[in-house]
Write a structure and sequence with these properties.
Four copies of one chain form a homotetramer.
Chain A (H helix, E strand, L loop, with lengths): L5 H9 L5 E3 L2 E3 L9 H12 L7 H4 E3 L6 E3 L8 H18 L6 H21 L3 H15 L3 E4 L22 E5 L3 E12 L6 E4 L14 E6 L5 E5 L25 E12 L3 E4 L5 H38 L5 H26 L2 E2 L5 E2 L2 H11 L2 H13 L2 H4 L3 H5 L3 H8 L8 H16 L1 H12 L4 H11 L2 H11 L8
Parallel strand pairs in A: 1-10, 5-8
Antiparallel strand pairs in A: 1-2, 3-4, 6-7, 7-11, 8-9, 9-12, 10-11, 13-14
């Protein structure tokens, strides 16, 4: 059976022996570590929902490789309908977790690698796509989480990979032999790496002829020899280490990013899907980014739903939900959130088949979608803070509420509308805090800015894809500027 | 043959004897009147392109009523593909005309009337839909332009139709007899009414039980007895009366709006599609508005393309097109314009079949689309003015350029990059002026604001359609607020 | 007596024999020409108000040169109080005219020229300042309007003055002799040139050593031999030529810009205030721009007051003024408008004395002020159009209202709240049209964008003036980054 | 001597026995508690700088009560110069601390209470002002920190104080006797209360005749019997409890807010400055809010300077500081930041003397200033996050950098431009994190939103103060709408 349960997923992680560092110490039991567990829970949702009949259509798909029912996160998109369902699945999971659920980079990576390896094979007679699909078939069968590992450290941004003071600042092949290759380097900002079964390494940018060593795509078990994970900090992260359950804001779920270091890690040829074909590197990045920029139209509108709902709830608990300006701000949040979503699904509906059979989204609209994502969540969060009121950032800790002397006083003085317990207000404010200025803001805001490329990356693509010459022709024609004049 | 040529369209208008007033005078030959002709040309484009093979797929459709190839502007949408093609057709025509092409209100009206009359017939056993489809069949066969006449004057906005000082401020039935009904009132802001063959009257808002006389849908020939058109002014409109062809900005095309007055006009029962069923009035308006709000995602992004192209062109003629900040502004214009478009097509793709078989767009997204249209064209226009430079509003008239003494001096001093004649710069600046501060700004800006409902109308719908309760539930769940606590 | 009356001003113009072209024809009686007269009326207001006791303090000042009471528009600023009063005077005049009143460029130019010529004299031992002050003394005594003529055509923007294909694209000295100099070239976008008595020519940018011929400051009577004015077009400009008084929107006032061509014009040495000192050119432009950017904080907030008032009035006439969203939009307009004003007065209050005794505004804040002016009027105008409703751009001409048959019908159907005549609505909508999409939009919007330099010019200055190093030091210190580490 | 040193301030706090709760426990040594100390350090800066000659002019003033040199934070403003210097002092302290320095509420409160008590005394023959000035004289002499305690819990926002389910939700007088009064209630969001010597209680809103018990102004020692402080949580607050000094972002400084509970606290008559005069309550709030809204123009632009500097620094360390789009974003940050500042100083310069001799700021502009503060810091923070890159939220903890195995790897892989140690990048990113998504964001963002009143409070004032009638008159006049027509 291809669909793991939530429990099977947790078990499968427990069997992996990864090297994980947090707060300066290497830890053993990363699955039950309170700092990491919320991000494991978030991925676990992708398993849990796959077994719920009402979500089956969105969360699962029929594999194009095996014909089996598989988790959509391991699927190659076979139609625009698949692309649209992906975005709807992402919105659903955003709504359920209120955070980043971390399984999209792998999914978008599969599809990008499939298209590009197919093309390389066609052009150069290699067998990368065959090997990749064999790998993916197993991923589907075992229902694995695969971290798409793309972002290199980049060092001094003015310098290309080969110009860097330290060559390892872009992950590279340091050895090749009959059995495989050895890679060295690091990938930064790895969303959800520690809760993955596999890592799929990809290059981070277009490369020059002389930079072949950086042109590598390959897959590795996340506990392969030489791989080290260092857990990244988030705002208010250590609240997870405190007793209690309210101040953390989002009770069960969270995201994480890690620095993943590859200390001369060996990869057998069977798992190498690009090795030196630097001329395809730019295209791979562009296709991956295209998919992933559309993905944000789903997940972030899902989290947006949660934040809008929380804002509406806090207004209700405080007695302001009928004030005109509050309603108007809620409407503005809805508008911005749905604009993001419209971008995601428009991008998907306008997808087209590629030679490998895998469907590609519309690149221009994907960049439009993501560029809105770099702006609107910030404004939605600002409006949420406006509605929430100052208590959002001045409320005492839940331990104070539990104190015998001041607890009752706080409940008395922080009461809102009498039909709702003060604890409702407390909880919903902590959730808004989480998403707008806490650990959740890392994924809702900063990740919206930089994930799948910073805004400038989208702007460069928009310039390139917008067919300005045609537009200029339209204008000249209407203005009566003749071709022969030109 | 159902598809008229451009010439046949012009001829057919010449056979109609409408009463048209401009500048205080009634005119005879409205077809060749220089103030009106540009708007007739714009509609003529919808005929012209229907015969061009490369546009056949967008501009024509197979009639669901007759099976014939018809102009899409007379079509009942039979699929989401039809809805998407509508938006793409609108973008194409916006690109070709650089203005409003005025045939959409009728199209969106047909589909709204079809859905609602079908429902009335089902509910009440009437035969409105049958009559309507008979009417529409003829429209398709004759390839007619039908003005959808919805917006009543409304008088004092604080008062409902029946509370107004003057009851005629909402168009109403003043008499009923065996042959038909008599209506009195006016419709304002009628986009392109004078270049239409028919008017289809619809109510403008939800109505109360006591307001049955205002609940009327019917069709009339545009030259029916008692109908008077008064042409509306636009910025710089009288440039069309000047000699020359440059200062008008958009050489061939323009839009117009008219006040249409109905002085006790008789309508035979055969052409009456709603008569007193006030309970359906609100729904009709909402469905029409839904369609029409999505339409703006198409036409305005088409005009946006022209304005972006003009901005790029003027930068080229002036030697600034490689300056970073100019490129960045062009990118911003593209981004905003495509965000509008993404809204239009997402709305269409998410359409659903209604009981009449006609497809309805997604109402929530339609309102999102239109609300962006009330903002982004203004910002795009602002950026275009930024790029254009001050000459946009300080350039002497084309007659000055034609003057023997100052003409050569102006050509000398207003020259830009030497490879382009000064006239290019002159023409393209006049086009940007037209769209951002001239006659074209009426359709690109003010119509974007108020067409298909002013922004507040969209906001009210967003609040109603966004399912806030569900969002609140999502937030409460993540915050650990139990149902039983509530 | 130094303060002319309005009538004396008009008379004085009639005595000047300027060469003025409009619509391809040279005209004689430019003072009473209906296209030009509104801009003469606007300047005339600066005379009229100088005699009204309640405005004396703002509109007049005590001359630092003669001790006489003079019009503030001819004054050298002697204190921050003078600088602030300038901005307040500009707001007042914007409120009274609803447009650009065109006398500021000269005023700001005087002060800039005073500071820089003083410096040149100090540095180089020249007598420019002495000559300039002698000239200015006469301007004050005669209460003259002086057009500050700065903006050269610039041709291909990628090329410096000396690289242009045609050297005349920057105004330059083509001959020098014992009596004076001869200049050739043109100045574009000359706000209000035709209603001026004098032109004061200034260079338009920083110049290189090899570009001495372009470094010229001098004053000429506006009817000097060889000067030609070509009137610039504005949106809806020819409404001034129509009969009637409503459609023009702003009944009395308007602005104008002209192309001013200098065909080998002779200037005696007595009126030459810079001649070849190219090293001071950049500073002169910067100081002038500084003053003038602050000026926009006054005049545009004054026009903004008119537009806000018109929006409030139209809401009242239509019965929407108590709707929450209308009130909220009015508040937003007020907020943006006052933000502009705050910039203008802050800039002035923070002014400092210069060696010449003339006070200079704060340059950083002046650029901040102007950059807001390139944005907020556009948003204020958008909100005004939102409040106004669609009739803003669809209302028939006033001649239609005067027609016997349709006039009464229009008055019936375009009636709003019954206590106000339809004509109120008609007039106030035409005023909003004027300011947001008509002739007034030229000064309220496009001039706000480009006057005193386009937005990019402000941004360059902000970068230069913001003392980023100091800010970086502040951050490093708080972050614990030690100097010695660096 | 009236000016305490930093050390004297710390000592003086140690002598006070306040009841302070944090994390559910009452603590003794609140002065050296690592959670609280940063906010004490911030206030300590106001003492430290008062002794530095270069800051003496801004930080100190000559008392109007005693003629002594006092700290400006205890000063009654005697001129617009005083008002402007206040804002400049606030900017300076924002620059030095990078956070809220918490001494402004008291200062603005003094001035508001002075004006209003003077008025009450004049009107009613009371002696409140005399008592208040006697109190203030001692504050100046002892150089005390006084927390202005205004914001009541408010409970159900739809209900007025007397309608609340629980009357204590607005602080009130529960007993009066010959010696004084007894008050009960709470004040929320008390910025910096725990580091204060005194609390000055003020009402939070306009009150009705029947709500006299809520109309109380009085001063109490912060350790008076019955006062309890509960420390409020902030994002990432517990990083202060961790070892190390980098992850906290701002090494020395921070703000805090507390819930202050008054459990039947006695206040002698000598310290009661309003007792039941509810008719002055609204005015007191309005005057206080006016001062305090202007204050934000100073402090927040100071913190903005730090954030701009940090963004410039991180760009330098990463090698992006010369990229056009980075420079452009820095410029935008500067522009927004200076717009805030311009509002603050314009408000101050336009101040006017009141009957008590104390100067009041311009209320309209103060609301404009603050309304910009509710928007621009959010956009500045968004831009800072854009420039910072993803590492802002994915960087491992400083303990990881200290680990023997992964520390060197992190330093290798997170290196930027080679001339700067990785630790620079680490420190500056933590500072940006602090201000935009950590503890500093509480003061830079959420406090900017809600401090001195939420945005809606400013909007209400703008509507009231903007003189709309006059604006309407201006518009009508220009449109030719005669008074007699009206």
């Amino acid at each position: 059976m291809s669909l793991k349960t939530k429990e099977e997923y947790l078990d499968s992680l427990r069997h992996m022996k990864k090297r994980v560092f947090i707060f300066g110490e290497e830890i053993e039991d990363y699955v039950d570590h309170p700092m990491i567990r919320p991000s494991i829970n978030a991925i676990a949702s992708t398993y849990e929902l796959s077994h719920q009949p009402e979500h089956k259509e969105l969360i699962t798909a029929k594999s194009s490789l095996t014909g089996e029912r598989i988790n959509r996160f391991t699927h190659l998109f076979q139609s625009t309908d698949d692309l649209v369902k992906k975005v709807k699945m992402q919105r659903l999971l955003g709504q359920r977790t209120g955070t980043c659920f971390q399984r999209c980079v792998g999914m978008d990576g599969f599809n990008a690698v499939d298209i590009v390896t197919y093309k390389i094979d066609q052009d150069l007679g290699t067998e990368y796509n065959t090997k990749f699909r064999r790998f993916l078939e197993n991923v589907q069968l075992e229902d694995l989480v695969v971290d798409g590992a793309m972002t290199d450290p980049k060092g001094d941004r003015r310098l290309s990979p080969s110009e860097q003071n330290e060559l390892d600042l872009y992950l590279r092949i340091v050895d090749r032999n009959d059995d495989g290759i050895t890679i060295r380097g690091a990938k930064l900002h790895q969303t959800g790496a520690i809760n993955s079964h596999e890592l799929m390494v990809m290059p981070t940018r277009a490369l020059k002829e002389s930079e072949q060593d950086f042109a590598v795509v390959c897959a590795l078990p996340a506990d392969a020899n030489g791989i080290i994970f260092v857990f990244g900090r988030q705002a208010s992260d250590s609240r997870r280490l405190e007793e209690g359950e309210i101040d953390v804001g989002n009770l069960q779920f969270g995201g994480h990013e890690a620095v993943v270091i590859f200390e001369d890690v060996f990869v057998p040829w069977e798992r190498v899907f690009m090795c030196g074909e630097c001329q395809y590197s730019g295209e791979l990045v562009e296709i991956f980014a295209g998919y992933h920029r559309a993905s944000y139209g789903g997940c972030k509108s899902g989290v947006g739903d949660v934040l809008i709902g929380a804002s509406q709830a806090v207004a209700r608990y405080q007695g302001t939900e009928t004030a005109y300006h509050i309603k108007d701000k809620i409407v503005e949040m809805i508008h911005l959130n749905e604009t993001i979503y419209a971008g995601g699904i428009a991008t998907s509906y306008e997808g087209k088949e590629t030679p490998s059979g895998t469907y590609m989204i519309d690149k221009l609209l994907a960049n439009v979608c993501k560029l809105n994502v770099t702006r609107f969540p910030y404004e939605i969060a600002r409006l949420a803070q406006d509605i929430a009121g100052g208590l959002l950032v001045t409320m005492p800790s839940e331990k104070d509420f539990a104190n015998e002397e001041v607890g009752p006083l706080l409940r008395k003085y922080l009461a809102g509308v009498k039909t709702y317990p003060t604890e409702y207000r407390q909880r919903i404010l902590r959730l808004i805090e989480n998403i707008t200025i806490g650990a959740g803001a890392v994924s809702y805001l900063a990740e919206s800015m930089h994930g799948a490329g910073s805004p400038m990356a989208q702007r460069i693509m928009l310039k390139r894809l917008a067919n300005l010459d045609q537009k200029e022709g339209l204008a000249n024609r209407i203005a009566g500027i003749q071709k022969e004049m030109k």
